Amino acid sequence: MGKLTMTRRTFAKMTAATAAAVGIAGTGTALAESSASSTSTGEVKRIRSTCRGCGKMECGVWVYVQDGKVIRSEGDEAAF
Q: What pLDDT, in 10s, does the model give residues 8-54?
């Protein structure tokens, strides 16, 4: 097997290209989205979800959704 060599510059370029590809391909649906939210009744729904802001753990949160848009979020005390 041949010796694998890579410079820091090449590594940085490959990392940026991979991140861009993942950003383009990441077209999944958010946790707060649902097909029932397409009606505009003005009703506020409270949905249990998770926060992945720090990347180390998933903290519990409550997300408030109105007309398919997040209007507020708060920590879930029961999740700690």
A: 888 888 888 887 777 666 555 555 555 554 556 789 999 999 888 87
In a domain, 53, yes or no: yes
Looking at the domain assignment, is residue 58 inside a domain?
yes
Return the closest-CA partner of residue 44 out of 27, 68, 24, 28.
68
Instruction: Classify residue 63 by burial, with Cβ atoms within 10 Å: 0-12, 13-18, 19+.
Output: buried
Q: Which domain holds residue 55?
A: 44-80
Please name the amino acid found at residue 73: S
CB-CB contact of 46 with 64 (8 Å):
yes
Residue 49 lies in a domain: yes
Tell me the C-alpha distance between 4 and 18, whole Å.
19
- Identity of residue 5: T
